[in-house]
Design a protein that fits this description.
The chain is of the alpha+beta class. The chain has eight helices and ten strands. The chain has a four-stranded mixed sheet with strand order 1-4-9-10. Strand 9, helix 8 and strand 10 (about 200) form a beta-alpha-beta unit. The longest helix is centred in the C-terminal third of the chain and has 12 residues, at about 180-190.
Length: about 210
């Protein structure tokens, strides 16, 4: 089982993440009136805001910072193909902020939930959990596979680990980037901040 969790964002969002010292949920971003580069389907965002989380700490999906259990998600594939209206920068400008499940348990023990599939998929009802012992409900074979076609695997690959309201940037293990150019750009953004010790890693396995 891979203990890493993956959050993708546009590189243009890193300055505000550094400034506010955290990754924020959608609702927190709006509360603080933070301007950011959106990489999500607008219609999906609307559905996420209306999707209730049935277990503690409750709220709706927009109250949580979303992470995936594996890189190369169906969403990244869609973004790379230019199929998200309003986003045309491909995958090169997307960066991964990577944390571990162990760090979540250390710092956010009562502030997380996770699912065993896409949380708003209309074809297959996913389940929500707030008990880490239920991680066995996640399809780890699908998470560890390079491809995820067939047998509901796309739905399962989009399972999410959700942290309530925020994740401190100081708890990010490393930042994954597309190439050496993006590595230099991210390192420059971090250089004069409190987070210049966060490793920035070029990792082709994170991308298509």
């Amino acid at each position: 089982m891979n203990s890493a969790l993956y959050h993708i964002t546009n590189i243009n969002n890193l300055p505000s993440i550094i400034n506010y010292k955290a990754l924020f949920s959608y609702n927190k971003l709006n509360f603080f009136k933070i301007i950011y580069t959106n990489i999500a389907y607008e219609q999906i965002q609307s559905k996420r805001g209306n999707t209730k989380v049935p277990c503690y700490p409750c709220g709706n999906l927009h109250d949580y910072v979303p992470f995936h259990f594996a890189p190369r998600s169906p969403m990244l594939f869609t973004l790379n193909k230019g199929n998200v209206p309003g986003y045309d920068q491909g995958q090169k400008n997307l960066v991964y902020l990577i944390i571990t499940i162990q760090e979540i348990l250390s710092f956010y023990r009562h502030r997380f939930v996770f699912t065993n599939g896409h949380p708003i998929n209309s074809s297959f009802a996913c389940k929500f959990f707030n008990d880490i012992d239920k991680l066995c409900e996640v399809d780890w074979e699908t998470m560890e596979s390079r491809y995820w076609t067939g047998d509901n695997r796309k739905f399962k690959r989009q399972a999410e680990f959700l942290v309530y309201e925020y994740v401190s940037l100081s708890h990010i293990r490393y930042i994954g980037v597309y190439d050496s150019q993006k590595k230099s750009e991210v390192e420059l953004l971090l250089k004069y901040s409190d987070y210049n010790s966060i490793p920035v890693v070029v990792d082709n396995e994170l991308y298509f």
